[in-house]
Design goal:
45% of the residues lie in helices and 13% in strands. By secondary structure, it is an alpha/beta fold. The chain has a domain at 92-289: 3-Layer(aba) Sandwich (Rossmann fold). Strands 1-2-6-5-4-3-7-8-9 form a 9-stranded mixed β-sheet, with helices on both faces. Strands 10-12-11 form a 3-stranded antiparallel β-sheet. Strand 11 and strand 12 form a beta hairpin. The radius of gyration is 21 Å and the shape is globular. The model is unreliable at 294-300 (pLDDT under 50).
Length: 373
């Protein structure tokens, strides 16, 4: 049974922060640890032994309490809120994706995160017409009651934020919530803090790097009911966001363009693959109006209700670990299939996988699959 959302105590939130900031603990591993131990505190204590059993030479050491407190102090100095996955202020659609961030840093008007959203993304080197259209569509969809979410990048992102400032807009940053990127968007960033909201998954002070942007893109699509793409070249970050949106069950909208313009090729390709062709804001509102709002991500809350039935240390043997490893490869394998192949209990297989994750020997892939690193 799903548990009601609740606010974490200060001590619990510090434990959550320490756990998610620990090496080799990403959102899925975090979720698995809490499902296994029921709370972040016991999970932190178990990390060294779990990683050692997974084959790590030097046991994994969790982020210290002092380090966690320093980050909490930095957030307080910024005036930022830290919102946990099970707390009422956490965006409901984002809680449903496969790998929601356990903690979001929020600056500005956090109440915007509880409203229905449309993501608007597109080319950084956008045309004048593309920027104008993105701003116009964002403003009109905003007046229809939707918050506009984007990534504060040059071009289409910036135009969409600018168009929606009066009705509500949220920027998702790839680095820390206090790091303005690109630097020339400082005026827009300041406006977002005053009139909208800025959120991030990474710790404050983190400079954005290339590997951070796909993670940022999953948040942009995960927050929204649908994603609108306005100008996008083939193999662009905007198309990654559109693909993630489709995988997350979101609507995908695209503005068509001239086949002579490389910036239109991505959108035209999306339309050929089934994205909704968009000419006016009414097209978007109509496409979103038929969607029923998902059940507030309550399925995720089951993972934090109570610990699984404990496994004794001798319930899992080296033979079990060898069997799981023998059935894994660099090709992603569905976890349910791995359980069938190994003929072991789900609890044993999942605990072995958790050990291997913490030892950085396996990694999770989309679709509840795992692969050897």
């Amino acid at each position: 049974m799903a548990q009601p959302k609740r606010a974490l105590s200060a001590a619990e939130k510090l434990d959550w922060l320490r756990l998610i900031r620990t090496e080799n603990v990403g959102p899925i591993t975090f979720r698995n640890l809490l499902a296994r131990f029921g709370a972040a505190g016991p999970a932190l204590e178990a990390l060294p032994d779990l990683s050692r059993r997974g084959g790590r030479t030097r046991p994994l050491r969790p982020v210290s309490k002092a380090e966690g407190e320093r980050e909490m102090a930095a957030l307080r100095k910024l005036g930022a809120d830290l919102v946990a996955l099970i707390e009422p202020g956490y965006p409901a659609p984002l809680a449903e994706i496969e790998d929601p961030p356990p903690l979001l840093t929020v600056l500005g008007h956090g109440h915007l995160l509880t409203r229905p959203m449309l993501a608007v993304v597109g080319a950084r080197n956008a045309s004048t017409n593309g920027r104008h259209l993105a701003s116009k569509l964002a403003a009109e969809v905003g007046k229809a009651g939707y918050v506009i979410v984007s990534g504060m990048a040059r071009g289409i992102d910036s135009a969409a934020h600018d168009g929606a400032l009066a009705t509500g807009t949220v920027a998702v940053l790839a680095g820390g919530v206090d790091v303005v990127y690109p630097p020339e968007n400082r005026p827009l960033y300041d406006q977002l803090l005053a009139e909208g909201a800025v959120i991030a998954e990474m710790p404050p002070g983190t400079q954005p790097q290339a590997r951070h942007f796909p993670r940022r893109n999953r948040l942009i699509s995960g927050l929204a009911l649908g994603v609108l793409v306005v100008e996008a070249a083939p193999r662009s970050g905007s198309l990654i966001t559109a693909r993630l949106a489709a995988e997350q069950g979101r609507e995908v909208f695209a503005v068509p363009g001239s086949p002579l313009d490389p910036r239109a090729q991505g959108c035209n390709g999306l339309i050929r693959k089934g994205a909704t062709l968009i000419e006016t804001a009414d097209d978007i509102v109509e496409g979103l109006s038929g969607m029923t709002r998902p059940p507030l991500g309550e399925a995720q809350l089951d993972l934090f209700a109570a610990p699984a039935t404990p496994l004794a240390a001798d319930d899992i043997t080296d033979a079990h670990r060898r069997l799981v490893l023998e059935n894994l490869s660099p090709t992603p394998t569905p976890i349910d299939e791995l359980i069938r192949q190994c003929e072991l209990s789900p609890a044993v297989v999942r605990t072995v996988l958790l050990e291997l994750e913490l030892a950085r020997r396996v990694e999770h892939q989309p679709g509840n699959r795992v692969s050897l690193i």
